Task: inverse folding
């Protein structure tokens, strides 16, 4: 049985990490991360992962049984039941940091699996365990958000034609700038993940 690579990565210590000289990454995922807010606080995220065509191909061929270019509800349910071993593991790939310290997030909910052309998409929500007040963020406090694989087997890329990290409804005075997180490199310290740095007025 195949398992989705993001979930298998949690088991890499059991099968041996790839040597540093090995080619990385092996899978590409385009990120769309929407920040959800309520009463001036960040409460969670709506996230879409769009997988590259090569990685998507065997799942598309196996589960799009009627070859209509989409996963019907029964096909998507079969894919999820057969391939995804732990919904909770998705949260390991969501990074929220306040003042550089990682903030815990809740468990994935409302997962849907679809197709965008030849690319498989996961769309889901991840709540914060505790809302983060946004007033003054970027002045006295830093806040960064992102979704990526810390082992760098998968490269998380941001789309070139639209903001990949954005607010569902931007609070007044809040902006997001895409930066490289140079304080928290991944893959033996050789890669700086892209994250959204949030700034909000007092």
Result:
């Amino acid at each position: 049985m195949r398992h989705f690579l993001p979930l298998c990565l949690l088991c890499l210590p059991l099968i041996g990490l790839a040597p540093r000289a090995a080619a990385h990454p092996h899978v590409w995922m385009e990120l769309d991360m929407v920040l959800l807010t309520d009463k001036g606080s960040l409460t969670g995220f709506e996230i879409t992962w769009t997988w590259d065509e090569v990685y998507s191909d065997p799942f598309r061929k196996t589960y799009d049984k009627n070859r209509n270019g989409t996963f019907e509800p029964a096909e998507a349910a079969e894919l999820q039941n057969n391939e995804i071993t732990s919904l909770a593991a998705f949260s390991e790939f969501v990074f929220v940091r306040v003042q550089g310290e990682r903030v815990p997030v809740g468990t994935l909910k409302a997962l849907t699996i679809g197709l965008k052309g030849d690319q498989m998409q996961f769309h889901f929500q991840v709540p914060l365990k505790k809302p983060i007040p946004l007033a003054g963020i970027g002045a006295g406090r830093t806040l960064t958000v992102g979704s990526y694989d810390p082992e760098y087997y998968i490269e998380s890329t941001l789309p070139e034609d639209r903001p990949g990290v954005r607010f569902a409804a931007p609070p007044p005075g809040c902006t997001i700038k895409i930066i490289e997180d140079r304080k928290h490199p991944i893959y033996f310290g050789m890669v700086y993940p892209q994250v959204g740095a949030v700034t909000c007025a007092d």
Summary: The chain is about 15% helix and 40% strand. The two ends are 52 Å apart (CA to CA). The first helix runs from residue 5 to 8. The chain has one domain: 25-200.
